[in-house]
Design brief:
Elements lengths: L15 E7 L6 H17 L4 E3 L13 H4 L14 H13 L2 E3 L3 E9 L5 E12 L5 E6 L5 E4 L3 E4 L11 E5 L3 E5 L8 H9 L2 E7 L6 H17 L2 E5 L16 E3 L5 E4 L5 E7 L1 H10 L2 H4 L11
Parallel strand pairs: 1-2, 2-3, 10-11, 11-12
Antiparallel strand pairs: 1-15, 3-5, 4-5, 5-6, 7-8, 9-10, 12-13, 13-14
Helix pairs in contact: 1-3
The protein binds the ligand NC(=O)CC(=O)C(=O)O.
């Protein structure tokens, strides 16, 4: 255990506005990219310097859709033909001078050919983060796939089509500090969030698409839980609800502060929500309730067994 006089460097260098862009992607990818670009412009006009898009912002969300919308991201940078979404995201970041956490897109990774000459195809749910100059800062592949079955309510098995990623994304935004990027179902795993906070992230950012069963019960609860566990900001960015789509997203994109207060929360329609993040709030929370110096790692070894 660290002593009560342990000093910690600030994790957020200067206050920054973060915006979550909640919009409803439809079946037309080009239209989704254009809509995302217009919404990022709207977000940047509020003064936001970190802008977040929703999970699967360039396609409808669903296992049937992943292969047909998937784009190749490797080798990086991909050509515009391989990934129109990569190119569009880089332009959105550069044109607006913002850090852009580009929601997620279905990714196709192509491996060696088999005996029949067919390529080995792997699909991921992947998030790309860009700098204000339009440079790729991080690629994150969803680690925990959304496989659930709640009888009479919802069954979803991302793993029928997708493969899980195998690394975390802790992204350095040079003007501000570090953020962790993860996707949707990942928010249910506190271990990941704790690692990110202990590595100095000031915010945990989750593009996500909860649904009408789990959304009302768990969406805000999980955001507030990850915030209070780790005394960091948490942002969850959802698609807007579209009842004509196959998957009904919960919406309610939100930003929570390090004391677990909801700073801003959308409804179910399209909306850009913006909150100011302030490093002093993190330090105040950690000074008042000094969890980081009180943890008993001597007793927690079992957690990864
Ligand atoms: N869509 C997800 O990945 C997760 C979700 O909807 C839930 O955890 O509930």
């Amino acid at each position: 255990m660290a002593s009560s006089t342990t000093t910690h460097p600030p994790v957020l260098k200067q206050p920054v506005k973060l915006a979550c862009v909640q919009f409803a992607p439809g079946p037309d990818k080009e239209a989704n990219l254009a809509r995302a670009a217009a919404k990022v412009r709207e977000a940047a006009a509020t003064g936001a310097k970190i802008v977040v898009l929703p999970e699967c912002f360039n396609s409808p969300y669903g296992c049937d859709h992943f292969p047909s919308y998937a784009e190749r991201l490797l080798p990086s940078p991909p050509s515009p033909e391989q990934s129109p979404s990569f190119r569009a995201l880089a332009a959105m970041a550069r044109d607006n001078g913002v850090y852009l956490i580009g929601g997620s897109i279905p990714e196709l990774a192509v491996g060696a050919k088999d005996g029949n000459g067919d390529e080995d195809k792997t699909y991921y749910n992947t998030s790309l983060t860009f700098s204000p100059a339009g440079a790729l800062l991080a690629t994150y592949r969803k680690v925990h796939l959304f496989d659930i079955s709640i009888p009479g309510k919802i069954t979803f098995r991302e793993s029928d089509v997708l493969s899980p990623g195998s690394s975390l994304a802790i992204v350095d935004l040079p003007d501000y500090g570090r953020v962790a990027v993860a996707i949707c179902y990942d928010v249910r795993f506190p271990e990941m969030a704790m690692i990110a906070a202990r590595r100095g992230c000031f915010a945990l950012v989750y593009p996500g698409a909860f649904n009408l069963t789990t959304g009302p019960l768990h969406w805000q609860l999980l955001a507030r839980a990850r915030a209070v566990d780790n005394q960091v900001y948490v942002a969850l960015c959802s698609p807007a609800r579209d009842m004509s789509a196959g998957y009904h997203a919960w919406g309610h994109s939100l930003v929570v502060d390090p004391m677990a207060q909801v700073l801003v929360e959308a409804g179910e329609e399209e909306e850009v929500v913006v909150a100011e993040l302030d490093g002093n709030k993190i330090e105040e929370a950690r000074k008042g309730i000094p969890l980081r110096d009180q943890r008993r790692f001597d007793l927690y070894a079992d957690v990864s067994r």
